[in-house]
């Protein structure tokens, strides 16, 4: 005599409910995974868009209209006019320059006070020529300045904002450093000029 195993309707209902719950869990897991993958892709996309390439700067011309060194203690009085080329290398990102201060230095010693360049906007892949006149009076310099060459550094500091479509980022500080060497030549009224383009380094 064989034993007959018969499942009750209650048992079948419980089994069916378990199957439905398992399917729901799988769907929930799948949708959760897709959601997190979408968020990850969005973060990577935003990181690519919102962290564009740094702007490029180069020193195109430096004119020293006045240069006077006092003795016996060497002090430098100077009048310098420079032209700086700024280029936005990004194809989809504009740049707002909110602050732009520029000064000259010799042997890491600042020889002119900060000169301000007015705020401006730079569109996609747009170049801009920036001009500034730097005046320095009675700044102490190294006696080796009389050796025949004048190595000058130019530093720009300020803040900028990135623009992507209608979105504008928060402000980021930036720094630009340029170096050029001019021959001193005669110490008369003849201006010293350098027209050799010098690539500058930019950090943000």
Automatic annotation (TrEMBL):
The chain crosses the membrane at residues 28-50. GO terms for cellular component: membrane. The keyword Membrane applies. Its main location: membrane. This is NDR1/HIN1-like protein 26. It is found in: Membrane. The keyword Nucleotide-binding does not apply. Keywords: Membrane, Transmembrane, Transmembrane helix. It comes from Salvia divinorum.
